[in-house]
Specification:
With about 280 residues, the chain is an alpha+beta fold. The protein has a domain at about 55-205: Aminopeptidase (3-Layer(aba) Sandwich), CATH 3.40.630. The chain is about 30% helix and about 25% strand. It has helices at about 30-35, 65-75, 90-105, 115-120, 170-185, 220-230, 245-250, 255-260; strands spanning about 1-5, 20-25, 40, 50, 55-60, 80-85, 125-135, 140-150, 150-160, 190-195, 210, 215, 265, 275-279. The strands form three sheets. It has an eight-stranded mixed β-sheet. A four-stranded antiparallel β-sheet has the order 1-2-4-3. Strands 13-14 form a two-stranded antiparallel ribbon. Strand 3 and strand 4 form a beta hairpin. The longest helix has 15 residues, at about 170-185. It starts with a strand and ends with a strand.
Length: about 280
């Protein structure tokens, strides 16, 4: 894959020069190659991916905890079905219900019809999970997914009947999906980003990993450190220039993090010279 670095606002006085990092798949590569290196889709067409602090469950390490079992017991009368996008009926009723849900949960205008339609017509949604009542067949929720067996599945967006909130339906659906893909033998299930404490509910699964910008980590205390750091007033250091971070999680040795990095810059022939990032 090729990497592009898009410059964003700098803080010249503190020597902070930020870049947003995009990955562009090359011939022979698939979305799974980008997911595995810490990127999530930047477009429904899967033409570009952005590096971010995202979460995944290493399904080889997953097993149900007592809390997971408690959540699953809350909705014994429901079942899920994995449906290829080509076989899913994207009806006006579903489209309207999803937009109404998004307005209430994400904010008005965050998920307009145009964005929903682009998602549903893009390669980023390959499958959907449909959750129904076993007795009546009535649908109570849907989850939009990218699935590339057996390497990766991405639990992208979920929409459900808000009347079921007191039964933790949203978390039930996610827990059901983690268990389901683990049972199918998948390597990883991605659960989106984690940039606020509100997203920590996604870390309740055994096998949870997060991408810290350099490598996948399993120490949730490191993740909480990163979240707390964002809640504080701006620091005079960027993360890898923060002695406390390196001391607490890498024994004061940057080399420990270097060894685990997903990326390496190596000389490579180019028409205009330069170097290449080796994944």
């Amino acid at each position: 894959m090729k990497l592009l670095f898009s410059e964003t606002r700098s803080d010249y006085g503190r020597y902070v020069y930020p870049y947003v990092i995009w990955a562009i798949p090359e011939a022979g590569e698939t979305a799974a190659d980008c997911y595995e290196r810490g990127f999530l889709p930047a477009s429904p067409e899967l033409g570009a991916f952005y590096l971010c602090r995202n979460l995944r469950v290493n399904l080889g390490e997953f097993s149900l905890t007592s809390e997971n079992r408690r959540i699953l017991r809350k909705n014994p009368g429901l079942e899920g079905r994995l449906i290829p996008r080509a076989e899913f009926d994207y009806t006006p009723e579903r489209r309207g219900a999803w937009r109404t849900f998004a307005d209430e949960r994400f904010g008005v205008g965050v998920m307009p019809f145009e964005r929903l339609d682009r998602l549903m017509n893009g390669a980023v949604i390959s499958h959907l999970l449909s959750f129904v009542e076993t007795e009546t067949g009535g649908e109570v929720g849907n989850a939009l997914l990218y699935v590339e067996a057996p390497r990766v599945a991405h639990y992208y967006y979920a929409f459900y009947d808000l009347g079921w909130r007191d039964r933790s339906l949203g978390l039930w659906m996610m827990t059901w999906a983690v268990r389901h893909f683990a049972g199918l033998g998948f390597r990883h299930l991605h659960l989106g980003t984690c940039y606020s404490r509100r997203a920590l509910y996604k870390t309740q699964f055994r096998g949870t990993e997060f991408f810290n910008g350099n490598c996948w980590g399993t120490n949730i205390e490191e993740l909480k450190f990163l979240l707390a750091r964002e809640e504080q007033s701006p620091s005079d250091r960027h993360l890898l220039d923060n002695p406390a971070y390196l001391a607490w999680f890498y024994e004061e040795e940057l080399a420990r993090l270097v060894e685990r990095s997903e990326f390496r810059l190596t000389p490579a022939p180019h028409p205009r010279g330069g170097a290449a990032i080796e994944e």
